[in-house]
């Protein structure tokens, strides 16, 4: 989250911002450079490449700015969650499960 915030800060040079946004986007993307189903190599980008890219970008950002963005990211993560949205999502899942169970439940057919 701090990397994403740093990528949107106008005080950071354009090249560093671009790299920060690309790395943050890649970290959150479901598409991998090396697919995860390949044994051992599949997790190489998550284990080695991504942390190295993040560490390199953090070194390019001024430490005072980086500390500011880390604090801002922590504040964003501590925001209260919407209970209404949580209830709505859980209700949709319960209704969907009940509808699926009703649809799949065997019915007795009465022959006249």
TrEMBL record:
InterPro entries: DUF1232 (IPR010652). Pfam families: DUF1232 (PF06803). Residues 16-52 form the DUF1232 domain. It is found in: Endomembrane system. This is YkvA family protein. The lineage of its organism: Bacteria, Pseudomonadati, Pseudomonadota, Alphaproteobacteria, Hyphomicrobiales. Keywords: Membrane, Transmembrane, Transmembrane helix. The chain crosses the membrane at residues 12-31, 37-61, 82-105. It comes from the Bacteria. It is a multi-pass membrane protein.
């Amino acid at each position: 989250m701090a990397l994403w915030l740093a990528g949107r800060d106008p005080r950071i040079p354009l090249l560093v911002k671009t790299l920060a946004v690309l790395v943050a986007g890649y970290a959150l993307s479901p598409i991998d450079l090396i697919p995860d189903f390949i044994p051992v190599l599949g997790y190489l980008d998550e284990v080695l490449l991504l942390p190295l890219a993040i560490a390199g970008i953090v070194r390019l950002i001024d430490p005072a700015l980086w500390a500011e963005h880390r604090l801002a990211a922590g504040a964003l993560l501590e925001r209260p969650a919407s209970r209404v949205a949580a209830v709505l999502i859980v209700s949709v899942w319960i209704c969907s499960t009940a509808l699926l169970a009703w649809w799949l439940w065997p019915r007795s057919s009465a022959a006249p």
